[in-house]
Design a protein that fits this description.
five-stranded antiparallel beta sheet; 17% strand; elongated
Length: 785
C-alpha cells in the first residue's frame, strides 16, 4: 500500500465519526417523524370514529323515540304517519321502517317500501338484530347513492310479536357531512382523506371522490385492519392508487361494526423533514470535503513530499550512488532528523566502500600473483605427470614384452611338441606308405597332436574372450564331488583336497569345460604355493546379493559362491594387486604363462559373475568365484552343427551335390576340397568372396555353400547373406577359427537362411555330417570338444 493511500485512509478514518454522527442524527429525526405521523394518523382515525359514534348514537335516539309510540309497536293505523313525522325531523335519513319477525315491512315513512313481494336484504338483516347495531352497505332504487341501515329491536314487554325498527342513513349526506367536518373542525387535518366502511370493508362514505368509490371494497392490503381489535396504522397503496399512511379504528361492537379510516400522503408529510435532513447532510459533506482537501494538501506538503525524497535517495543508494544526499529542509522536524541520520549513514557507507574497494584492489593483485604462481606450479606438475605417464608406459611396455616373452616360451614349447609329433608322423607315413596298419596308427598320432594344439589355442581364446561360452545348467555340488578325486590324483599325495557343498544348491549357468579348466588352474596355483604340502578346500554355498550391496560389481540377484582356499605361502599386497593381470607370474621361467588367474577372471565376467582374491603373506590365499543361479529348464548353447545325420547322406542316396567352397588359404581349401571330393561331392573352389559371387552370378547351380569367415574383401558373413538373397534357401556353412559373433549368428540376427557355424580345426567326418544334415533339412547340435 502506497503512502498516499495510507494518508487518504487516515483522513477518511478521522472524518468517519462526523459522518456517522450526522447519519445517526438524521436517522433519529427521520424515525421520530415517522413515529409522530403514526400517532397523528391514529388520533385522526379516533376523531373520525368519535364522529361516527355520534351519528350512530343519533340513529339510536331516533329509533328509540319511534319505539316509544305504542301505535308503532302494534302496527297501529297511524304507524306510517308517526314514522313519516319523525323522518321530517331526522336530517340525513332516507327512511324509517318497522319490520316484523318474518322480515315484512309493516309500516314505513316511505310508502314505496310497503307491499313488497319479497323482503329486501336490509329487512332480512334486521330480523337477525338483537341489539342496536349498524348494518351493511345497501343500495336502493329510490336512493342510488346507497344507505347504511341502523337496527333497533322495538318489541316491549307486553308486545306479542317481536319487531325491529330500521333507520336508513343516506350515504351521500354522510359524505357531505365528512367534507364539512374538515372545514368546521380544527381537529381534523385538511390533507387527510376520511373514509367510513362497514364490517365487510365496503366503503360507505369518503370525503374525496365519494361517488367513484362508494360501495367498493378495500384493496387487499387494507383488509388486514378488519381483523384488528385496536386502532393502528398501515402503509399501503390506497384504492385511489396513492401510497398513504393509514390510521384506522377497526370495526368492533364498540364502534357499531363501523370502521373509521384516515389516510395521509406520507411523502408530503415527510417532505419538510427530508428536506432538512438533506440540507444537513449536504452541509456536513461540504465541511468534510473541505477538511479532507485541506488535510490532503497539508499531508502532501509535510509528509508525502519528504517521504518521497527519502525513498528517491534510498533508491539511488540501492543503485550504488552513495554520494546522493537527502534534502534537510527542516532539521527540527522528524523527517529532517531522519534525513540527517540517513546522510550520516550514507557518508559512513561511502567511506567503507572506498576502503573495501582499496582492499579489493589489493586482494585482486594478490590473487593475480598467486594465480601466476599456481599456473607455473601447474605447468611443472603437468610436465612431471607427462614424464611419469611416459615412464609408466615404458615400464608397462617392458612388462608386456617380458610377459610376451614368457608366454612365447611356454607356447613355443607346447607347439614344438605338437609340430614334432606332426612332422615325425608325416615322415613315418611317407616311409611306410605300403603299410596300411602303420599309416592308420601314425595318422591317429598326428590327429592327437593336432588336438593338443587345438586345446592350446582354445585356452588362449578363452583368456582373450574370443571363445564362445557354452552355458549349460551345472550342479556345482555334484561337480565338486566328481572333481575331488581327480584333483587329489593330479595334485599329489602331499595335498589334501576337501570339497564341501551346501545341500540343495540351485544350478548355475556356465560353460562346464571352462569351469573345470578354471578349477584345475586354481588348484595348480594352490599346489605350487604349498611346496611342503597342505590343504586345498573347495566350498560352495548359496548367496543373495541385494540391490544396495553391489559386492565386487555384482548385479542384485541369487548366486552360488565358490571358495577355493589353500594353506600355502600367500601373496603380499604388491603381488596381489597384479595377480589377475595377463602374463603376470611369479613362477620361474618356463613353468607358467601368467594366464591362469587372468583366464579365471575372464571366465567369471563372461558368465555374468565375479572373481575376488584375498591373500596375506604366510596365511594362504582365498579365491571367491560368484556364478549366477539359473531356473531355466533349457539354456542357449553355442550354435554349431555337427554329429551324425541320422539318415542317409545325399551322396549315398545317389545324388552328387555341387558345393561352392570358399577359403583364402590355398592349403586349407585344397585339403577340404579333397575330402569333399572323396565323399562324392562336386566341388567348385573360389579363393575369395568376390570370385564366389561371380560363380553365383553366372547362373551356376549349387546345393551348398561352405566358406571361411575372415577373408580379404568380402567376409564370410556378408558372402552368405548376399548368396542367400540371390538364391533363397541356399544352405551355408561358416568355418572359422574365430567365433566372436557366433551368438548373433545362431539366433539369426545376421543370417536368416539355413546356416551352420563350425570352428576350426574341423574333422572331415564332422564337416560331412553337417553338410548331410543341412542338405536333408536337419539341424543337429554339435558337441564341441
Amino acid at each position: 500500500m502506497t503512502l498516499s493511500t495510507r494518508i487518504l485512509l487516515v483522513i477518511a478514518i478521522c472524518l468517519l465519526p462526523i459522518v456517522a454522527l450526522q447519519g445517526a442524527f438524521s436517522w433519529s429525526q427521520w424515525s421520530q417523524r415517522k413515529a409522530q405521523l403514526d400517532t397523528v394518523a391514529i388520533r385522526q382515525a379516533e376523531l373520525l370514529g368519535g364522529t361516527i359514534s355520534g351519528i350512530a348514537e343519533g340513529a339510536r335516539i331516533l329509533l328509540g323515540a319511534a319505539a316509544e309510540y305504542r301505535q308503532v309497536r302494534i302496527f297501529g293505523a297511524d304507524c306510517n304517519a308517526r314514522l313519516s313525522a319523525l323522518r321530517q325531523y331526522a336530517f340525513g335519513y332516507a327512511f324509517i321502517a318497522l319490520v316484523d319477525e318474518t322480515g315484512r315491512v309493516r309500516c314505513a315513512s316511505d310508502p314505496a317500501l310497503l307491499g313488497l313481494a319479497e323482503p329486501p336484504a336490509w329487512a332480512e338483516e334486521a330480523r337477525a338484530a338483537r341489539t342496536f347495531t349498524a348494518g351493511h352497505f345497501t343500495r336502493l332504487p329510490q336512493v342510488p347513492g346507497g344507505v347504511l341501515p341502523f337496527f333497533l329491536p322495538a318489541a316491549g314487554p307486553g308486545d306479542a310479536h317481536p319487531t325491529v325498527l330500521v333507520a336508513a342513513l343516506d350515504l351521500d349526506w354522510l359524505a357531505r357531512n365528512l367534507s364539512g367536518l374538515k372545514r368546521s373542525s380544527a381537529a381534523l387535518l385538511t390533507n387527510g382523506v376520511l373514509t367510513i366502511a362497514d364490517a365487510n370493508g365496503v366503503i360507505l362514505a369518503r370525503d374525496q371522490r365519494h361517488e367513484e368509490f362508494v360501495g367498493a371494497r378495500f384493496p387487499p392490503a387494507a383488509l388486514a385492519l378488519l381483523g384488528e381489535t385496536r386502532p393502528g396504522t398501515l402503509r399501503i397503496r390506497s384504492i385511489d392508487g396513492t401510497n398513504r399512511l393509514v390510521g384506522f379504528v377497526p370495526p368492533t361492537a364498540a364502534s357499531h361494526n363501523l370502521a373509521a379510516v384516515v389516510g395521509f400522503a406520507e411523502a408530503e408529510l415527510m417532505a419538510d423533514v427530508e428536506r432538512s435532513l438533506l440540507q444537513s447532510a449536504l452541509m456536513v459533506a461540504s465541511v468534510a470535503l473541505v477538511v479532507f482537501l485541506m488535510t490532503r494538501l497539508v499531508a502532501r506538503r509535510f509528509i508525502e513530499a519528504p517521504t518521497r525524497a527519502l525513498l528517491a535517495v534510498a533508491h539511488r543508494w540501492g543503485q550504488g550512488e552513495l554520494a546522493a544526499r537527502a534534502p534537510e529542509r527542516d532539521r527540527r522536524s522528524e523527517f529532517g532528523k531522519i534525513a540527517a541520520a540517513w546522510n550520516a549513514m550514507a557518508a559512513q557507507l561511502q567511506r567503507r566502500e572506498e576502503e573495501l574497494r582499496h582492499h579489493a584492489d589489493a586482494l585482486e593483485a594478490r590473487v593475480e600473483e598467486r594465480t601466476r604462481e599456481l599456473m607455473r606450479t601447474n605447468d611443472r606438475l603437468s610436465t612431471e605427470i607427462e614424464e611419469r605417464r611416459q615412464a609408466e608406459a615404458a615400464l608397462l611396455q617392458a612388462q608386456k614384452v617380458q610377459a610376451v616373452g614368457q608366454l612365447a616360451g611356454g607356447i613355443a614349447h607346447d607347439f614344438n611338441n605338437v609340430l614334432q609329433a606332426v612332422l615325425g608322423g608325416t615322415s613315418l607315413i611317407r616311409r611306410r606308405a605300403e603299410d596300411p596298419a602303420a599309416i592308420r596308427r601314425l595318422t591317429d598320432m598326428v590327429e592327437e597332436a593336432a588336438r593338443r594344439g587345438e586345446a592350446v589355442t582354445r585356452r588362449l581364446l578363452a583368456f582373450s574372450r574370443r571363445e564362445e561360452l557354452r552355458a549349460v545348467p551345472l550342479d556345482l555340488g555334484q561337480l565338486l564331488a566328481d572333481l575331488r578325486d581327480v584333483l587329489a590324483a593330479t595334485l599329489g599325495g602331499r595335498i589334501r583336497v576337501v570339497a564341501e557343498a551346501a545341500p540343495g544348491l540351485p544350478p548355475v549357468l556356465a560353460d562346464r569345460s571352462q569351469f573345470e579348466t578354471v578349477l584345475l588352474n586354481l588348484a595348480t596355483n594352490a599346489r605350487d604355493a604349498m611346496p611342503d604340502g597342505g590343504t586345498l578346500t573347495l566350498r560352495a554355498a548359496a548367496a543373495a546379493i541385494g540391490p544396495e550391496s553391489g559386492a565386487n560389481g555384482l548385479a542384485a540377484g541369487d548366486y552360488v559362491h565358490l571358495l577355493v582356499e589353500d594353506t600355502g605361502e600367500g601373496m603380499d599386497q604388491a603381488t596381489l594387486a597384479h595377480a589377475t593381470e595377463p602374463f603376470f607370474t611369479t613362477k620361474p621361467l618356463g613353468q607358467g604363462t601368467g594366464l591362469g588367474l587372468a583366464m579365471a577372471n575372464s571366465f567369471a565376467q563372461g558368465s555374468r559373475g565375479a572373481l575376488a582374491i584375498e591373500s596375506e603373506a604366510g596365511r594362504g590365499t582365498r579365491v571367491s568365484l560368484w556364478l549366477p543361479v539359473t531356473r531355466a529348464e533349457t539354456v542357449v548353447e553355442r550354435v554349431e552343427m555337427a554329429g551324425a545325420a541320422g539318415g542317409p547322406s545325399p551322396v549315398q542316396a545317389g545324388h552328387r551335390p555341387r558345393v561352392l567352397l570358399v577359403d583364402d588359404e590355398p592349403l586349407v581349401r585344397r585339403l577340404l576340397a579333397g575330402e569333399l571330393a572323396d565323399a562324392g561331392y562336386e566341388v567348385v573352389e573360389a579363393a575369395d568372396g568376390a570370385l564366389a559371387l561371380g560363380q553365383l552370378s553366372r547362373g551356376e547351380s549349387f546345393q551348398l555353400l561352405v566358406t571361411d569367415l575372415a577373408m580379404p574383401g568380402i567376409d564370410g558373413v556378408s558372402l552368405i547373406k548376399e548368396a542367400q538373397e540371390r538364391h533363397p534357401g541356399l544352405p551355408a556353412i561358416l568355418v572359422t577359427g574365430y567365433a566372436g559373433d557366433a551368438a548373433n549368428l545362431a539366433v539369426g540376427a545376421v543370417v536368416g537362411g539355413p546356416f551352420a557355424l563350425m570352428r576350426k580345426p574341423v574333422s572331415g567326418a564332422r564337416l560331412l555330417d553337417q553338410m548331410a544334415a543341412l542338405l536333408s533339412g536337419t539341424r543337429l547340435p554339435a558337441r564341441v570338444g
